[in-house]
């Protein structure tokens, strides 16, 4: 039973990545179109971990100031993504496929380092708990958010200058705005475990839709 629980969590976490890869133009280029995204995520995660450990003090209670500082470090992701977009290894396929491939690779890196290891060491033992299924659902929301994030950075970097302001606004919402709002609602007791997932799901859908509109406009201009 515990093993089936582990398998269910892993499948639920990684199935969207498999489906996106095989139902889009990405499969025509092979996994190499996603490799630069995975590498970029690992580099960014390592740098952020070092910055967190060095410059961000530990707070015993939730404070707005501490959260702003912590989330603002996510700007490192933007700089690494800009570097990845210019990387020779990323020059595979057309602009749309390249950005989607990097986004999927970035999301895959997040799923492996932030979720898979936790599932392997925890979800396979003991009795059934909703904690890891909730984590898998949360991971699905993260996939949508991370792919959208990479697409927004791509629009900011590669496309028309007229899209820089809406791209900048969406990046601000993704990096700082939503995490702080969600943290504040959790701190005030206005969100519980399932309602928090629902809130994040709605946000992920809205962000993905806004990103699609942005990319469609970018490709027309």
From TrEMBL:
The chain crosses the membrane at residues 6-26, 33-56, 68-87, 99-123, 143-160, 167-185, 197-220. The keyword Ubl conjugation does not apply. InterPro entries: TMEM147 (IPR019164). Keywords: Cell membrane, Endoplasmic reticulum, Membrane, Transmembrane, Transmembrane helix. It is a multi-pass membrane protein. One of its GO terms (cellular component) is plasma membrane. Its main location: membrane. Belongs to the TMEM147 family. This is BOS complex subunit TMEM147.
